[in-house]
Amino acid sequence: MSKFTHNDLIVLLTAIGVILILSRIISEMGRRFHFPIVMGEIVVGILLGQTVIGTINPEFFDSVFPKDGNVSIAFDGLVNLSVVLLLFVAGLEVQLPMVLKQGKTAIYISFFSMLIPFATGFGFAYYFPQWFGNDIGGDIFFSMFIGTALAISALPVIARILMDMNLLKTSVGQLIIASAMFNDLFGWLIFSFLLAIKSGQESLGVGYTVLYIFGFGIFMLTIGKKFIDRSLPWIQTKLSWPGGVLSISIGICLLCAAFTQKINIHAILGAFIAGIAFGDSVHLHEKAREIIHQFITNFFAPLFFVSIGLRVNFIENFDATIVGIVLVLAYFGKVFGATFGAYIGGLKIKKAFAIGFGLNARGAMEIILGTLALNAGLISPKLFVALVIMALITSLTSAPLIRKFLE
Amino acid sequence: MEFDIQKLKKRPAYPFETIAVGLAFSPRMEVMLTEAKKIADTCSAKLVLIHVGQKTKEKEKKLGDILFNTGIEEKKAKIIWAEGDVVDTILKLCKLNMVDLLILGALEKENIIKFYLGSIARTISRKAKCSVLLITNSSQQKIKHKVVINAGADHPKTLHTINTAFYFAKHVGIKEVTLVHEIHAPAFAMAMAESSSAPEVTKLKKEYTEEETNKLHKLISKCDIGNLKINEKLIKGKPGYAIRQYAETKKADLLVINSPDTHLTFLDRIFAHGIEYILADLPCNLLIVHSRV
Known about the structure:
The complex is a heterodimer.
Chain A: H1 6-31, H2 37-48, H3 53-56, H4 58-64, H5 70-92, H6 96-102, H7 104-127, H8 140-151, H9 155-164, H10 171-199, H11 206-238, H12 243-262, H13 267-279, H14 286-311, H15 320-344, H16 349-359, H17 363-375, H18 381-406
Chain B: H1 5-10, E1 18-22, H2 29-43, E2 46-52, H3 57-70, E3 78-82, H4 86-96, E4 101-106, H5 112-117, H6 120-127, E5 131-136, E6 147-150, H7 158-171, E7 176-183, H8 188-194, H9 198-221, E8 229-236, H10 241-249, E9 254-258, H11 266-270, H12 275-280, E10 285-289
Helix pairs in contact in B: 2-3, 4-6
């Protein structure tokens, strides 16, 4: 086994340092124009990666971000850890009681904002796979992935948009947040199922995969949650602050992720469900929640989102037709589905449209989903690039469109 | 006996013209009836005593003795003996008799199975179409000292709840109440982590608190305070849980909250929110105001 050398360590530390500093600079510049932070990180990835520096000076690119060898393995490990932790913080904000509390309107919005984009994506991918750069027709997994990719929302960017617009605490804001939580939960459950089936077709059948996913979810959200609920007051008062809660919460997240990976469901599900179990606890201090968010969002998120640009050539893989189709389906399915749900849930048409456009922001979650699908061989780089562009455009257009319908 | 559902829907939450008491023949029945008589007298309300179960000589005698001890005149109180499902029968009788306030005895904490399956007092509290006063098992003193009212300023029911609580407070001789507004913003931490500088975070938090304080002041300005002394308190935490903790810490006699907005099911107990946090472990006597809006 080859050892991690003195030089490998220098390369790895340089790469991480450059990524963190550059992505912070570019994201801060973007923040002045109200661009989501993830956009800056993707741009840094494109600049540092195969698209720009990798094309202009391939030797330099390979020396800082080698494609294979020890540094590449170590960097891949960090990126995998990042995605697990990003799913943990995503879960931390999913509060199922909130969906129940918001009542039937939230349930209608959540249901139709999942069902219609999922059905639209599934149908088009199943009958017209060539539109998405896939030659195999009737591919159930691929069609289900497209359905899920169009159905998911991005809670972090939605929360930020609503906060900037001073809508976070309003009834419309709360309905959007509650529905986004529901979309995230079911989106990640379906996606974990797809990844599990794709990666472990020989070892697990569909029935067992579903059983394992629901079994783990129900266990963690009942017994696991009770255990966390009972332990948190002790952790937060008897252990060092905030080190105690930070290490125990992340430790439990990683153990859950390892467990779900072990039973052939992807690690992301374990992390996501662990996040829900922690986030829903009445004992989790608001300050602890903020610290976990800050630590993961500002250290691990840049590593993950920059790594996307490092691996994929965005110019070579840009296909205007696929981008156009993905954008049209994404807008149609989500906006129509959520608006329809809000309308039959009793809201007036303008408010219903505002909710539709609010939920349309895909942001970071879509990009994570696309990356995992690309790594699992579910989609092509061209479709991945289209999904990233769709995620960014839907996030950028969400605020002005909400404003238009609420004015 | 027929009842007019429209008349019931339009009926304001107060004054309490008809007060019903659910009788379970528990050791606490006398304390409950003493409290009920006091409230009925001060509110000039009719008293309806309901027992769902078999009518026996022993029960009749026991009730007669307690009524004598508590000073309730048998002729003035309406006593109903009924059989059937306890929850459904009590709810139906409350509607038929246009009950404004139903008084029930309740344990502070049910055992876990009973809680999830739904005990009688708690199930009625979730479903009742009138206000419900749950008198806890350990409450020894009368309701007169510390009253905590949930003043969720964003909810349309809250104004009715506060006014009903003030009406109740004035009639039972309470001089001071605390209006508590819970602050809870899901996804706030996530939104701030997305991109905010330190001054921005401080400013956002400050603005948020100021906004909530103003809402509470605006709400109080619409209430009929009279001579009551009002304290205000903003607390952070999950709605329901935070106020339960507050009432417990302050050793309140009575906690007043809005009635639930939706039909609560088993799922609401698993993924608890709002009233379910309070019903899971009653911190003190609980008045659930059904404002019928």
